[in-house]
Design a protein that fits this description.
Its EC number is 3.4.11.2. The protein has six domains: 184 residues, Immunoglobulin-like (Sandwich), CATH 2.60.40; 105 residues, Zincin-like (2-Layer Sandwich); 133 residues, Orthogonal Bundle (Neutral Protease, domain 2), CATH 1.10.390; 90 residues, Immunoglobulin-like (Sandwich), CATH 2.60.40; 149 residues, Peptidase M1, alanyl aminopeptidase, C-terminal domain (Zincin-like fold); 124 residues, Zincin-like fold (Alpha Horseshoe). Helices cover 41% and strands 21% of the residues. Strand 18, helix 1 and strand 19 form a beta-alpha-beta unit. The chain binds (3S)-3,7-diaminoheptanoic acid and zinc ion.
């Protein structure tokens, strides 16, 4: 199939103003009648054929303005319906299709999850329900009649507001009629029908409008929805307070299903969620799960304005809704919890997911210019880097002008499908600035490297900072232009406080504490600086760049202890650890003994005993860079075994030195009061479990006992899972017993069992591969359920570098083989799993050759889905 290109965008030849759907639900043969009101666009010549999208459809009837259409007037295939000579004046098409939800294993379009009918239409699933102009710039008003067996499907849900319900005379069936007054693209269409429990609540908007809120779940799970509901109400209030956005329908429904390709979907007034992001209680959900639920509920809710009221003109503009909405949900979580903690978590995610994407064969701009399969572009680059770009805009403009720009955006483009250019124009107009160079962030792939050199002249009392920027070559982009890079900074004086800058700096635009780097090279001079400061740069991670700033060990230690910016304190600790880990891995690789740096070990001790740090921040600072992060830093010829060994060595050295202090934290913080998911309580658990992780590595006899005790006495999933992970990953004596006990306790809860699969899949050690194979034939495993596949196979491929990249190639083989199996059933899950190969070229020659042959094996399959074909071709190119 030819590539779709941004430059080929043309407005639609026909509009669809109104959609009326009648959906007669049957598990194996659902009948859909779509009545569509078409109008020819002013620029379209009379008689221009109307071409509608379809995907695996069976056409069973077709009428034009109420009359059957002769066979000669149209051409229909499963993926296309062409009306050859449509009327010049507005007309109505009535299209009847028949679809089979039961055999829809792709989970796109209309499918069934445990007996519930539900839909997923983004990006191109609506065309699996009826023939349509399935593109985001065709906005229509939808009315949906849903009819089903009353016994099987007592609950019938659609977009918008409920208009009418009733029974169908002489049958056991009933129907519901839903009307959504807000014009929307087809990807926001949804329906749900099933036997579900309803958890009701309500919300009064700022202007006094009453909104009925409901979460629908499997019977028996009602009590697990409290946190999601609470998060929803807080999201609604926050969006009013912070962005002035109010909800716009009488009802907001959320449905939780257990078979879902993604996290959740923002369908207008009817969000559908992977139940992983709805259900929580202390017994089955970790603190991380609680935080994720809060964030995803907020994210989908915020889409109501950024995505639904204002949507994308075409799929190239995906970051218009996703980057902006991620930014909004990040801000929400920061306000609900601790801002620095949230920022560190978000940046860690960006560095571990987006940076490698941007440095490998799948690199693409935040706004791609070309795609083969749009579902492969719901990436960390579009989402997370897209959010960073919005954040930079705020940094450059300041809070007020940023808000003014967004207000203008909401006002100017409400009800439209629009573009990044239009978005940026709102900020240009509101703030009176030119963002043409800034716009490069949307068009250039790759992570810029900012190189920093400093020089202090005591006689002249000047401090010079020379800055340069460059993007290393990425696929399809040999050269790049300088971007606008906001660098938040401080000059740390000898006492650790930021020096006051009394004279205007020269050589760059400086706004408050932000240096704006906008050329390939710039030299900034600060005057009246009597003594050499430590430059704290990229505070709060003010731009998604890599910093090449060679600080001395002393400077880094100083920063780790003193920087007033919590992010850069964390970063300094991480940099110190990373440098040592890379050095150790290099030594181990050469067969030499590695001895961890005393200085690094000391810094960890100081972090642990620093009373000024909050518990969660401490836990974050004490977290060693992951094996994947270390591999990324090494960059080429990586031996994952050496990386693993280096990390183990440092952990042990830290634990040996500070064992008593860790033990004091473990015993001092445990078991205070009833469980609460709030940030303070979660922070204490995180720190206590981090301390346990180090204490376990002392190998002291009571360490194993302590871990077992935490496992067996835990009254919440966070502690239980942390201890289980130690037992299994450190191969402690009662590892098997723990796994069995966990299983016995959680067997009937598939979300809790996903953690059981994940812990085993990510265990280091040779035996894991055979374990994973055995787990695949476990009755609780289900290769058709995306959550199970992610828990077992995806976590093995992305969270177990030594075993996925085994030197005998068996890890790659297992994943390649699984991809081929899964691809037949669910291409989106398969292609996502395939991206775990993206860093294959950075491995040592033997391993990369094995990875390549696994990829070639996938590639040689002739009937690969378009999704997997696209990823495998790009990965190998
Ligand atoms: N918009 C959906 C993602 C759809 C993915 C389609 N392959 C969820 C979200 O970003 O909120
Ligand atoms: Zn989204």
């Amino acid at each position: 199939a030819p590539a779709i290109r941004l430059e080929d965008y043309r407005p639609p030849a026909y509009r669809i103003d109104k959609v009326h759907l009648n959906v007669l639900l049957e598990p194996a043969a659902t009948k859909v009648t779509a009545t569509l009101s078409f109008a020819r666009a002013a620029s379209t010549e009379e008689g221009t054929p109307l071409v509608l999208d379809g995907d695996e459809l069976t056409l069973t009837g077709l009428k034009l303005n109420g009359e059957d259409l002769p066979q000669t007037a149209y051409a229909a295939t499963p993926d296309r319906l062409e009306i050859q000579n449509p009327p010049a004046a507005p007309f109505e098409l009535t299209i009847e299709t028949e679809i089979n939800p039961d055999t829809n294993t792709k989970l796109m379009g209309l499918f069934r999850s445990s007996r519930t009918f539900c839909t997923q239409c983004e990006a191109e699933g609506f065309r699996r329900i009826t023939y349509f102009l399935d593109r985001p710039d065709v906005l229509a008003v939808y009315t949906t009649r849903i009819e089903a067996s009353k016994a099987e499907c007592p609950v019938l849900l659609g977009n918008g507001n409920l208009v009418e319900t009733g029974t169908v005379d002489g049958t056991d069936r009933h129907y519901a009629l839903w009307h959504d007054p807000h014009p929307k693209p087809a990807y926001l269409f949804a329906l749900v029908a099933g036997d579900l429990a309803q958890v009701p609540d309500r919300f009064t908007t700022a202007s006094g409008k009453e909104v009925a809120l409901n979460i629908y779940v499997e019977h028996g799970k009602e009590t697990l929805c409290a946190w999601a509901m609470d998060s929803l109400k807080r999201s609604m209030r926050w969006d009013e307070e912070v962005f002035g956005r109010e909800y716009d329908l009488d009802v907001f429904n959320i449905v939780a299903v257990s078979d879902f390709n993604m996290g959740a979907m923002e369908n207008k007034g009817l969000n559908i969620f992977n139940d992983k992001y709805v259900l929580a209680d202390p017994e089955t959900a970790t603190d991380q799960d609680y935080a994720n639920i809060e964030a995803v509920i907020a994210h989908e809710y915020f889409h109501n304005w950024t995505g639904n009221r204002i949507t994308c003109r075409d799929w190239f503009q995906l970051c218009l809704k996703e980057g902006l909405t991620v930014f909004r949900d990040q801000e929400f979580s920061a306000d609900m919890r601790s801002r620095p903690v949230k920022r560190i978590a978000d940046v860690s995610l960006l560095k571990s997911h987006q940076f490698p994407e941007d440095a490998g064969p799948l690199a693409h701009p935040v706004r791609p210019r070309l795609y083969h399969e749009i579902n492969n572009f719901y990436t960390a680059t579009v989402y997370e880097k897209g959010a960073e770009v919005v954040r930079m805009l705020k940094t450059l403009l300041g809070g007020e002008e940023f808000r003014a720009g967004l207000d203008l955006y909401f006002q100017r483009h409400d009800g439209e499908a629009t573009t990044i250019e239009a978005f940026l124009a709102c900020f240009e107009d509101a703030a009176g600035i030119d963002l043409s160079q800034f716009a490069l962030w949307y068009d250039q792939a790759g992570t810029p490297v900012v190189t920093v050199k400093t020089h202090h002249d005591p006689e002249r009392q000047t401090f010079c900072v020379s800055l340069s920027q460059e993007i290393p070559p990425v696929p399809g982009q040999k050269s790049s232009k300088p971007a606008v890079i906001p660098l938040r900074f401080g000059l740390l004086g000898p006492n650790g406080e930021d020096m006051e800058i009394t004279a205007p700096a020269e050589g760059a635009r400086i706004a408050g504490d932000v240096i704006v780097l906008e050329k390939a090279q710039q030299e900034v001079t600060f005057r009246n600086i009597p003594s050499a400061p430590v430059l704290s740069l990229l505070r709060d991670f003010s731009a998604p760049v890599r910093l090449d700033h060679k600080l001395t060990l002393e400077e880094l230690q100083f920063q780790a202890a003193q920087d007033s910016d919590p992010f850069n304190r964390w970063q300094a600790v991480q940099t110190l650890a990373m440098q040592d880990l890379v050095r150790l891995a290099g030594l181990i690789r050469k067969g030499q003994p590695g001895v961890p740096s005393e200085d690094v070990i000391r810094v960890f001790g100081s972090v642990l005993s620093d009373m000024s740090l909050d518990a969660q921040l401490k836990a974050q600072a004490l977290t060693l860079p992951s094996e994947a992060d270390i591999a990324q830093e090494i960059g080429k010829n990586v031996d994952p075994d050496a990386v693993h060994a280096a990390r183990r060595l440092l952990r042990q050295a830290v634990s040996r030195q500070h064992g008593d202090a860790f033990l004091a934290v473990v015993t001092g913080l445990s078991g205070d009061g009833a469980y609460s998911p709030n940030a303070a309580a979660a922070g204490k658990r995180a720190l206590s479990n981090r301390a346990l992780y180090y204490y376990a590595a002392t190998g002291s006899p009571d360490a194993a006992e302590l871990v077992w005790e935490r496992f067996s006495a835990a009254d919440n999933m966070t502690d239980r899972l942390a201890a289980l992970t130690l037992l299994v990953h450190d191969h402690m004596p009662r590892e098997t017993e723990a796994l069995d006990r966990y299983k016995a306790r959680h067997e009937t809860n598939s979300l809790a069992m996903d953690k059981w699969f994940m812990v085993q899949a990510t265990a280091p050690g040779e035996e894991t591969l055979a374990k994973v194979r055995a787990l695949m034939s476990q009755p609780l495993y289900d290769a058709g359920n995306p959550n199970r596949v992610r828990a077992l196979l995806q976590s093995f491929a992305t969270g177990n570098p030594t075993q996925f990249a085994r030197a005998d190639g068996a890890g790659f083989e297992l994943i390649a083989e699984s991809i081929l199996e899964i691809d037949k059933r669910n291409p989106q899950v398969a292609s996502r799993l395939l991206t775990s190969f993206r860093s294959w070229r950075a491995l040592d020659p033997q391993r990369s050759a094995l990875a390549e042959s696994a990829l070639l094996r996938v590639s040689s399959c002739e009937d690969l889905s378009r999704d997997s074909r696209d990823i495998v071709d790009r990965t190998l190119q």
